[in-house]
Every structure is written in C-alpha cells, then in structure tokens.
Amino acid sequence: MNWVDISLVVVLLLAVWAGWKRGFILGSLDLLTWLGSIILGFIFYPYTAKGLESIGDLGAWLLPVAFILTTIIARIIIGFITRRILNTMPENAHQDSINRFFGMIPGAVNGLICATIIAALLLALPLKDTITTETRESLIASKLSLQAEWANKKLAPVFDQAVRQTMNSLTVKPGSHEEVKLHFTYEDPIVRPSLEAKMLEMVNKERAKEGLKPLQADREETLVARAHSKDMFARGYFAHVNPDGKDPFDRMKEANLKFKSAGENLALAQTLEIAHRNLMNSPGHRANIMSPDFGRVGIGIQDGGFYGLMISQEFRN
Q1: Residue 151 to residues 27, 52, 90, 117, 209, Cα–Cα distance (Å)
Q2: Out of 53, 87, 98, 113, which residue is the most buried by the measure of CB atoms under 10 Å away?
Q3: Which of 291, 313, 300, 271 is nearest to 4 (CA)?
C-alpha cells in the first residue's frame, strides 16, 4: 500500500463520516439527485442536441453542450422534487441516530465515486511521472481505474469530437494494417520488467482456466517487443506495421528469431488491468493469448508516464 492507496482510503472514510453527519435521508436524496441527473442527461441529450442544431452551428461542441445542458436541467428538476419531499419531513428526523447510521451507506457510495474520479485524474493529467507510476502501482487505484475506463467509454461518443480522450486505451486487430496516429510522441519511456512479469502471470492464468500449457518467457522476443513499444512512442503511431512497412514477422526475422507460427498483440492503456481486460475482450487478441500453437511469449512494456503503458506481446511456437 502506497501513499495513493492511503489518500483514496482517507477520501472514502471522510465521505462515510460526512454521510453519518448528513444522515440517510439527506445523503440518499443528494445521491439520487446527482446520479439521476447524469442518467437523464445520457438518455435525453440527443433530443437537446436536435433543438440546439436549429439555434446555431456548434460544430464539435454540439453533443458536449447538449449533454451538459440536459444534465443541468435534469438536476434542477430532480432537486425541486427532492426539496418538496424534504419539506414534508419533520426536522428531528434528520437527527435520529438510526438515520445517521444508515447515512454512511450513501456516504460510502459518494466516497467510491469521488475516489474513482481522483484515480482517473491522477492517471490522466500531465503530472510528474513519479505520481503516475505510484498511481499505477496502487492496489486501490488500479481497481477503480477499471470503472473510470468504463465511464470514459460511455462518455466517448459525447466528447470525442470536441476533446481527445484523456484515458488512452487502444488496441488494433491482430494481423491488420490498421494504424492509429497518436496525438503525442514520447522519447524516453521506461522499461517495466515487473509489469511484464505480472502480465505474463495474467496471461498464463487465463490459459490455465482452459487447461492450456503456460507460455514461457522468451527473452529474445521480449527485446523485440520492447523495441516496438518504444518505437511507437517515439514516432507517434500505434500499429502492427511500422512506418517503414515492417510487420511483426519482419521484426522477428531481423532479430534472427526462428518460428513456425507467430503473432502479436498491442495495447495502450493507463493500467495493466485495463490493457489485459481489453485484450481478453477482443476475439482476435484473445485467440493469440489462448492459442495452443504458441509456447513462448515476449512482453515488452514501456511506461510513458501519463501517456500510458505501451504494451507489445510477441508470440511464437
């Protein structure tokens, strides 16, 4: 447990304490108002966007403005209703010990939401690399970041055209010539052997579930994987085929690696857990991880600070 874990625990405990102070009634209504307004914003923002189109051309900001405006209107409406409910209750109901005790429940929910937002910001904002590294190594932040990634994907259709996604999370189909142009370059990433070893454990755990033999760490392929991850950072691209036109098999042959069958998985994500989940949720990447034809793998992870972890998995028989 590091300082990030401790900070997130403190946030949660403070929220629980605040929930006890406010009580279950006020805490639940506040939580309902906040979550309800966001849910209604998701549901009705397309209709608001249609109305805004008739007023003027907002370009890429149409959907974000529609979502924010709808959420604000929903909050005002729900807030009006909750105030009416509160006015019907006696004042001493909020001071009741049972009400205070159960107030810790909505307090804990608020705390988890706040901690998730903080974890996401620590990973996404251009802070010192040491802070980003500590956040990635935090047991709590790594779990919360999975939820933040889910929220990021839900919000992506709304905000993608206006701003770049702050939580880098990419994969490309294995064997394809698909290329993603990154909005940055990074010259000095740090090799993360400990994360490479951890990802190998995660991969072999998945294989064990299907009764497959574990993959052996391949030192030679690891060097190829690290080189490709570093090159993608340095030249600002994300693809199996590099700007020189060389695919994974070309790079393996250049390193004098012998193979009958081979494959490559790529991922860019803020945490190892997010990257692994995205790979396992993709049929093509999962097929490489679970293939009985492969017996060795080299995993190269370059840490680009707040830009994320660039991961290459090189498989061979």
Answers
A1: 23, 25, 38, 10, 29
A2: 113
A3: 271
pLDDT tens readout for residues 31-40 = 888 888 988 9
CB distance 157 to 63 below 8 Å: yes
DSSP state of 27: H
pLDDT given for residue 311 in this prediction:
96
Which residue do the tokens 């793998």 mark?
A: 297
Residue 222 · residue 298 · CB < 8 Å: yes
Say whether pTM exceeds 0.70: no
Helix (H, G, I), strand (E, B) or coil at 312: strand
Q: Among 231, 117, 120, which residue's Cα sits nearest to residue 169?
A: 120
| SS3 state at 268 | strand
User: What are 207-223's pLDDT values in tens digits?
Assistant: 999 999 999 999 999 99
- Tokens coding 149: 């990634």
